[in-house]
Amino acid sequence: MVSYASVLLYGLGGIVVAGMALLVAFQEKLVYVPVLPGLTKSYPITPARLRLLYEDVWLRSSDGVRLHAWFIKLFPDCRGPTILFFQENAGNIAHRLEMVRIMLQRLQCNVFMLSYRGYGDSDGFPSQHGITKDAQAALDHLVQRTDIDTSRIVVFGRSLGGAVGAVLTKNNPDKVAAIILENTFTSILDMAGVLLPFLKWFIGKSGSKGPRVMNFLVRSPWNTIDIIGEIKQPILFLSGLQDEMVPPSHMLMLYAKAAARNQQCSFVEFPTGMHMDTWLAGGDGYWSTIQEFLEKNVSQKKDGDSTRKDSEAR
């Protein structure tokens, strides 16, 4: 007769096997969602629909993948900060255009919106290794431009975009002036237990109490918690306390890790902000927070300094 202990053991074994199978087969589909349900991969609108001044930019990542981006200017000769924006994991850059339209006006900036590989009009298939290369290609393009102040490039990443931006900022201390993180997770390893609770006993990063026997299966761990403490530039953390996707505690852990080594960190909470709408729920306070951060850390240089740098770039 089979004992209850044996049944329990077999049951736990089945859960582990099922979890491993899910991770191996479907993890990219869980982490990266280029196409929202009921929609297509293509852009539903372009910046022209919102009467924004923009150009289509085509890039090649270092591994040869063809990438698409929009470079949107407030006006042709705008020398304000240039925001390199990295989106969340779902949908494409067109779904962020309304927010970007307001960003342009409130921050008096330019915005570069990159489509990760496999998203929008970009070729390829998303992965951590590949998207890291995509982000570097976008930054390399910006620093070579002569129509912007390349000393005022600021990375802005929301959710997955924060993980992407953190890696880029850490790797480019001389090219990125500052970084803004909004509703970003500590690690995909930690998020696995949030999205699939039974996995928290077998996979995790920050504060995990389980044996973590399945961590090695994760191909896109995005361990932001390991990266954030190595960033030397100013960091602004924007946290929506009603975030229904990423627990707000993740942002607190990231801030604590960063602030222990970097005195140029600021943390701001928005009580009614959810995962995707903190920029909307935060109202004027949201934009004034970012504006103050930029004025403090990415101030405009004297005309002589800016002109000299542009001449050197040419």
TrEMBL record:
Lineage: superkingdom: Eukaryota
SUPFAM superfamilies per the UniProt record, alphabetical: alpha/beta-Hydrolases (SSF53474)
Alphabetized InterPro entries for the sequence: AB_hydrolase_fold, Peptidase_S9_cat
Pfam families according to UniProt: Peptidase_S9
Segment forming the signal sequence: none
Keywords: Membrane, Transmembrane, Transmembrane helix
Membrane-traversing stretches: 7-26
Coiled coil: none
Residue ranges annotated for the Peptidase S9 prolyl oligopeptidase catalytic domain, each copy included: 132-275
Official protein name in the record: Alpha/beta-Hydrolases superfamily protein
